[in-house]
Design a protein that fits this description.
Helix content is about 40%, strand content about 15%. The chain is an alpha/beta fold.
Amino acid sequence: MPSEVQGILFDLGGVVIDWNPRHLYRNVFGDDATRMEFFLTNICSTEWNELQDAGRALSEATESRVREYPEWEPEIRAYYGRWREMIAGEISGTDELLGELSRMRIRLFALSNWSLETFPLISGQFRVLEKFERIFLSGEAHAAKPDRRFYEFALERIDIPKSRLLFVDDNLRNVEAARGLSLSAIHFHDASQLRRDLRAFELYL
């Protein structure tokens, strides 16, 4: 029986591209993992970064944070000043999986929390990104996952019924938000697990 899935929306960071601020801050903080985690939880947190992903200017965000936490100025300025060091490469196995899906004529899209200022720094460096028919960035929509407005922004621009779409993300919060919009969704851990989970949707890879 052929799959009813016609298209898949992939998150990028953590699913396709290995983006993690710890790749940078392990160099900044050295062996002091406790201080690093404090900084990434309380100073330059995920929630703070998502404001920039949704369209806030990086310079504005940096200067505001430095004024608020002047004792952390070098570390704060490193966040976007050395942002490229947060990228370790591609996620193992995902590129191969995307190629197989494309050969099965499954249409591929990306839906990613990503600043319009930082994405151009890597967009031409990873050929895997060329496999996507369209990449939807939160900076373009001025809303970031799990905000339903970002999902709706993409869904309005994809000519596939929502019932024939599948969403893949490594953040369970975002997966649950997609399911709340009646999108079938898979919580990504690694490419092998994703391959197994796709079989539940009659996608035999």
